[in-house]
Amino acid sequence: MLLNTTTSLISTLIRPTNGIQSRVNTDKPAKLLQLYDIENCPYCRLVREALTELDLDALILPCPKNGARFRPELVERGGKAQFPYLVDPNTGVEMYESLDIVTYLFDTYGSGLPLKWKPGRLQTLGSMLASAPRLHRGMRARPGKEPAELLELYSFESSPYARLVREKLCEMEIPYIVRNCGRTLASEWLFPPVRSALDITPKSELDNRRHLLAREGKLSIPYLFDPNTDQGLFESADILDYLDQHYGS
Ligand SMILES: N[C@@H](CCC(=O)N[C@@H](CS)C(=O)NCC(=O)O)C(=O)O
C-alpha cells in the first residue's frame, strides 16, 4: 500500500497545477456529462482535470483494456475504441480527442480556454509523465459485479488517494458518478488532520464540498457513497476493501 500511495503521490506532484484548483461554476449543465474513460490514460486525465477545474460532475464509464462492459458500447456509439469520449446530453455534442474536449468544456461551461491550457501538446506531455509512475494500474480489466445503482465518488483529479479508488473502479469496470471537489479556498489546502488539530472548517464555496460536510460532518477526499447499501466511506484503503468485498468477482 505504501508503494502504491507513493507512486500516486509522485503522479500528483508531476501535475501540481492541474486538476485541483476549481472555480465556482454558476453555469453547470442540467444533465450529467458522460465520459468513456481509462483512469491512467494520459489523454483521459486531461479531460478529468478540466472537469475538476470547472467544478463539473460526470458519469464515468470505465473502459480498461480488455474491458467488456463499456468498450463495445463506445465502438457502437462513436465508431472506434479510442478514449476519452465525451457525451454531453445537454447540447447533443459527442466527441473524441482530449484537447478538443477540454476546449469544448471550457467554452461551454467556463469562460473560454485558460492560458495554461493553450499549449495543448505540453499539457499532453505532462500528463504522459504523470501516467508513468502508475504503470498498468487503472488500465487493465479485472471485472467486478456491476452495482444496481450508481456509486458516487467525491474526488478531485489530482488527489493521490482518490486516484487509487478511481483506478480500482476502472479496473472493475464499475460506472460511477464523480462528484468533483476541487479547492477554491486557501484553507482547503491544509491536510484534514491539520485542519482538525487547528479546529479549522473551511466554509467551502463548492456545492459538493458543502453537501459532503452536511451529510457526514467532516470533509475528506475520497469519499464513496454506495446507495445500494446506503453506506458512505472515507479512507482510500477502506474503500478499496469495500469494493473487493461487495463487487469483487
Ligand atoms: N489524440 C487522442 C489520443 C487518444 C488515445 O490514444 N487514447 C488511447 C488510450 S490512452 C486509446 O484510446 N487507446 C485505444 C485503446 O485503449 O484501446 C486524444 O487526445 O484523445
Automatic annotation (TrEMBL):
Residue ranges annotated for the GST N-terminal domain, each copy included: 149-249
Keywords: Transferase
Coiled coil: none
Entry annotated with the keyword Cell cycle: no
Cited Pfam families: GST_N_3 (PF13417)
GO molecular-function terms, A-Z: transferase activity
InterPro entries tied to this protein: GLR_AS, Glutathione_S-Trfase, Glutathione_S-Trfase_N, Thioredoxin-like_sf
PANTHER family in UniProt: THIOREDOXIN FAMILY PROTEIN
Protein name stated in the entry: Glutathione S-transferase
Organism encoding this protein: Seongchinamella unica
